[in-house]
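User
Here is a favour to ask of a fellow structure person. I am asking you to supply a protein in sequence and structure-token form. Please set it down just below, with no commentary around it:

Assistant
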Amino acid sequence: MALRASCLCQGIAIEIDGPVRNMLFCHCSMCRKAHGSPFRARGRVRTDDLRWVRGEDLMRFYESSPGEHRGFCSVCGSNIFTRFDARPQELGLALGILDDDPGGRPTCHVFVGSKAPWYEIADTLPRHEAFPPGYAPPQAEPGDG
């Protein structure tokens, strides 16, 4: 069964036919600013697993880092997903847009060295100054393309 996701104004709706992987909480300053919150809850999905229900024409993108394009609804501003030039086969999904339970849960906090000073992490999940060991940030791999 597909996971449903949508933006605040309901202009954008997508379905995801595969797993949401690598869920985490990112405290970097870009995620905080883009989401207007102390952190971003995010996971990864395969591009081929995403199906547009409506609103693809409402998507706008901002290149926040070289090769990373944060996608948002042009009507309500909801963050939808991040596209990666180096890994076009996957997207960074903003978990807040999910209308259904993805089953998994975020497993750690990343970039805690730049977390908002007014926010205290209150759970016992592992904390990392950058990405956790073994986590592969989006980058080109042999055979991608």
About this structure: Residues 140-145 have pLDDT under 50 and may be disordered. Residues 42 and 80 are 10 Å apart (CA to CA). The helical segments are 29-35. Strands lie at 3-6, 13-16, 21-26, 40-46, 50-54, 59-65, 68-73, 79-84, 90-94, 109-110.
